[in-house]
Amino acid sequence: MRNYLFGSGLISAVTSGVALLRGSKDTPFTWRAVLAWISWGISVALVIGAIIDMRRERESEAVARIAEKKRR
Length: 72
Fold this sequence. Notes:
This protein is an all-alpha fold. 85% of the residues lie in helices and 0% in strands. The longest helix is centred in the C-terminal third of the chain and has 41 residues, at 31-71. The radius of gyration is 19 Å and the shape is rod-shaped.
């Protein structure tokens, strides 16, 4: 779990979200702000998808090892 929480993608997504939130406090809400938030949302979705893919890959490797042991 530590690998997922402290991964560089997740840290950068959180950091950019905090910077975006701080930057949008005093500025008016324009189409550029909307695009920035959409971009941040896509980044977070990609990070979460990558974490899920890595977890599934590790689980499938473990299942393959167990199946190989049973065949012997």
